[in-house]
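Long-time lurker. I teach an intro course on protein structure, and each term I like to show students one example going from raw sequence to a predicted 3D structure in token notation. This year I'd like something fresh instead of my usual example. Would anyone be willing to generate the tokens for the chain below so I can use it in lecture? Attribution to the forum is fine with me.
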Amino acid sequence: MSKTTYTVEVMNDPSMGYQHEYDIIVKETDLGTKLTLKYAKNKIWLERLRGKKIISILDTGDGVIIEGCSNENFGYDDLFCLRLLLNFHTHLSKNEIDKIPTKILKKGKKITKL
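-- Reply from a regular --
Happy to contribute to a lecture. Here you go:
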């Protein structure tokens, strides 16, 4: 089974520029394509977090299974990680539904294009 690792660089502080904060591992399994977000092995993280899995998405071809979201009280950091992985999934996806252009409107005014 193939496995590819992507680095995710984030700019939290413009004076420090982009820093390698996360890794995304994409692995083909018997059940489908699994995307796993992990903390980078970077000094910016506590030693106990470095390389630790945060969240995974398994794309079965019939839908996705999200692993690591069992807490109902989702923090903004958790939301950021989920959004990051979902955006990456959409980028890789061959599913036509992920390619449908959409807009979000407020009282008839365009807010953003997704």
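Some talking points for your students: The first helix runs from residue 76 to 92. The two ends are 33 Å apart (CA to CA).
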